[in-house]
From TrEMBL:
Keyword match Ligase: yes
InterPro entries: Mur_ligase_N (IPR000713), MurCDEF_pg_biosynth (IPR050061)
Annotated protein name in UniProt: Mur ligase family, catalytic domain protein
Keyword Cytoplasm carried by entry: no
Record-annotated Mur ligase N-terminal catalytic domain positions: 13-109
Source organism superkingdom: Bacteria
UniProt keywords, alphabetically: Ligase
Entry's Gene Ontology molecular function annotations: acid-amino acid ligase activity
């Protein structure tokens, strides 16, 4: 699937707290997109995503997939059995692998500036 010029505006990340997924989510948030995601775990990364404007769910049964126009998954997601994958497929919403989205975003990177938040680390005393 081709994601021409970031033709989507509301991506949803399945497993948004993962290192690769959260990085892409932060990048798209910095481009002004409305980002949503699901993660089974609460974490500092997920909290930072929420503070930066992402909507993150921890229960898959409450998602209204119609609010999103793209679903992003990683290799950690089992496409054949994940309940959210079925919801997106049933509504005809495109699903793309994280690597495909990363390729598209990187090919468009010079077309608009990004402000990706960084995590400040504390120095050991």
């Amino acid at each position: 699937m081709s994601l021409n010029r970031l033709s989507f505006q509301k991506p949803f990340f399945l497993g948004i707290g993962g290192s690769g997924m959260s990085s892409l989510a932060f990048l798209l948030l910095s481009k002004g997109l409305k980002v949503g995601g699901y993660d089974g775990k609460h974490s500092a990364v997920v909290e930072k995503l929420v503070l930066n404007g992402a909507t993150v769910l921890h229960k898959s049964d409450v998602l209204e997939v119609e609010n999103y126009d793209l679903a992003v998954y990683s290799s950690a997601i089992r496409l054949e059995s994940h309940p959210l994958v079925k919801k997106f497929k049933d509504k005809g919403i495109p699903l793309v692998h994280r690597s495909e989205l990363l390729h598209q975003v990187m090919s468009e990177k010079n077309k608009f500036p990004s402000r990706v938040p960084t995590v400040k680390r504390r120095r050991a005393l």
